[in-house]
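Support request, please re-run this one:
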Amino acid sequence: MQNTALHKRFFQYALPSMMSQLLNSCFIIVDGFFIGQNLGDVGLAAINVAWPITALIQAISLGLGIGGSVRMATALGKNDLQEARRARGNTLLMLLVSTVVLGLGLTLASPYILPLIGANEELYPLALEYTRVICMLSVGQIMTTGTLPLLRGSGKTIHAMVYMIVGLIGNIVMDWLFIQVFQWGLAGAALATTMAQIFCACMTIPTLL
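Re-run finished. Output below.
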């Protein structure tokens, strides 16, 4: 009976966590679908060239979120609420600092980084158009990616999954509106992604606090 209860509890946490992480990776897939339909191979190639910069932002924020989540969950397991709050607060502070450092730093550095990672004369303007919006509005990606592990670490795995579903639906709607209707191209794709992630952050942070 005890093993059955443990297995049930494990999957209660694991499955929503896996699903929310999977949904998080679907944002770029949605962008690629609408870009491919409207800008063709050149648009898709430009997104692929710009992707390492986006991946860097995601990797750093995810690392901070997972590290803070482990500290917080360990403290909660010891019933040390003060330490858990400290871990949560320190993680949120580091995420905010990363927003300023990465957002400003990569916005300034992306014109020099893109040629080094494969942006030729044809792809460079499109890749830079996409990257600038992603970097300038990176607060959504950083805060959402970083706070989702904290939510899961505090036992709110269903909340994390639901917020990702809502954000992904918002991304699809805004991609259709900005790319298909308004014809804003790669800037529209980046704006749709960042706005959806900012919307997710507006849900995750109050729930976490």
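The two ends are 35 Å apart (CA to CA). Residues 29 and 35 are 10 Å apart (CA to CA).
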